[in-house]
Write a structure and sequence with these properties.
This protein is of the alpha/beta class. Helices cover 40% and strands 25% of the residues. Helix 2 (56-68) packs across helix 9. The longest helix is centred in the first third of the chain and has 21 residues, at 2-22. It is globular and about 60 Å long. 38% of the residues are buried.
Length: 267
Amino acid sequence: MKKIIGLILAIITIVGCVFAFAACGEKETTETLQVYTNAGFAPFEYVNDNGKVVGVDIDVMNYIGKKLGYKVIINDIQFENILPQVQSNKFAVGAAGMSKTDERDKVALASVVYATSVQYVIAPNGTFAENAVVTLDQVLAAANKIGVQSGTTGQYMIEDYIDEVNEDEETPDVTNKTVEYSNAIVASQDIGTATCQAVIIDELPAKSISAANDKLSCWKIDVDPESYVLYFNKEATELVEEVNKVLEKMIKDGTINQYIMNHSNGN
C-alpha cells in the first residue's frame, strides 16, 4: 500500500512540474489591463476585414499581458480621449502610436521608446517631386486647408508653425487652416476637395493610406523624428517598470520589428 501511495504522490509531483514548466515565463492572469487606442492609424492600430481592432500596438499589448499575467481589453476611442482615460485608471494604458512629448509626460507616465517615426504629408499625385523631402513652407504653399488627426503631434506641429509664420514681422501672413478629423483615414477621403487639400500624419499611416489610393502619394516632411511610447497612469510606477522589462526584451529580440513588418504588408 505504501508503495502505491508513494507512486501516486510521485505522479502528482511530476504532473505539477510539467504544468509549472509549461507556464514558465508567464504569470497567471489576475488583473484586467484596459488598453485605449484609436483604430485609424495603420499599421499600429486598424480595423481588419472581420471588424476586429488589430495592429502593432495590439500585438505588443497582448504579448505584454500574456507575459505579466493581465487580461487585455482593447478599447477603440477618440484619440484625444485616451490620456483622460489613462489618468482615471491605474490599470489603463494608452497604446496608439503615441509620440512622447513634454505635455503628455506631465499627465501620464511614459514607457521606454519602442518605435520611432517622422511626420509625412499626404497629397494628390504630383503635388511634390517624387521622393522629395518637403518643408513646412512647401506644405503651406500646396494646401490652404490641411487635414489633421485631432490631438496628434502632427496637428500641433503645423498649427504652431502657422502661428510662427504669422508672428514673424518679416514674413507675409498666411491664411492656411487645419481641419480636424477623427483619424487620417477619414481625413484622406477629403483630399483634393475644397474641404482639405493635404493631410499630415506619421510615416507608416501615411504610407498605408497612399498605398491604398492610387490618386494619392506621401512625402516626408523635413522635421525632427518622434519617439513612440505607451502611456500609463501616474501612479502605475510598478506596472511601468514591469512593462519596460518586457518591451526592452521585445526590442532586443526583434519582436516589435516583426510586428511592424507583419502589419505593413497590407491590412
